[in-house]
Amino acid sequence: MDNSICQVYEDIIQSLEEEIKLLAEKYEDSQQESTFFSDEEILMSIKSFQREFQGESKGCESPSDLKAQLESLETDLSFLMKFTGIQFTSHSKKTVEKTRNRTVRKHRLSGNCHSLSFQLEFQLLEMQNKESVSAVISDLSIIMESGEDSDVSKFVSSTEEHGNLLTFFRSLSSYAEWYEHRRCTFLHFK
After folding, report:
1. DSSP symbols for 38-92
2. I need a labelling partner for 113 at 20 to 30 A (CA). Which of 71, 79, 101, 159 fits?
3. Are 125 and 172 within one domain?
4. Neighbour order of strands in the sheet with 102-113
5. Claim to verify: residue 169 and residue 116 sit in the same structural domain
6. Same domain assignment for residues 43 and 101
7. Tell me: the pLDDT tens digits for 3-45?
């Protein structure tokens, strides 16, 4: 009986040690992220935030103005979704690497365009110099239900190779619209 009790305690101790190790790694990661910024950058950021906050508090909008602004934004979003047919259902991003002038984030998007669903995964490299910020897309992976259409597969492969998201969304919008028209037409004749 003593051996079983000892084993239980040893198992508990081992699980606690693993949990401590994981928490220590998380703490280290958060410390590394916070050390990427110098004290001067942090102070500038705080001052900028304070200026924005003071500007907002001076021109404090009434709840009715905020509600009207929100309704306007929702109307614009609804228009864009109807115009392009693209509707995003989920988005996630994770910072992979962050230095003073360079940030790499991994993005995952999923959604649908008319009746076609798609999923995207890519890395976005943002490089900042004194005057501007440039962004480069890499490791683009597109998963799309293309059915038996080999042209769509070729297009997806080409887009992944070149990493051009704008071309992908423009073409997807047009293709999905006509795909929907063809589908409805074939249903009509069945």
Report:
1. -HHHHHHHHHHHHHHHHHHHHTPPPHHHHHHHHHHHHHHHHHHHHHH-EEEEEEE
2. 71
3. yes
4. 86-98, 102-113, 116-128, 133-144
5. yes
6. no
7. 778 888 888 888 888 888 888 877 776 665 555 555 666 667 7
Give the list of residues 6+ apart from residue 100 with CB closer than 8 angstroms, or none: 36
Length of the chain: 190
3-state secondary structure of 148: coil
CA 109 to chain centre: 6
Q: Say yes or no: 18 and 99 in one domain.
A: no
Contacts of 52 (CB under 8 A, 6+ apart): none
Bridge partner residues of 92 (DSSP) = 108
What pLDDT sits at residue 12? 87
Range of the domain at 113: 84-189
Assess if residue 98 is contained within a domain: yes
Q: Name the percent of the chain lying above pLDDT 70.
A: 82
Please tell me the total count of domains within the chain: 2
pTM score, whole prediction: 0.56
Residue 114, Ramachandran bin (φ over 0: left; ψ between -120 and 50: alpha; else beta): left
**In whole angstroms, what is the distance from residue 109 CA to residue 122 CA?**
9
Residue 150 pLDDT > 90, yes or no? no
Could you tell me if 93 and 181 lie in one domain?
yes
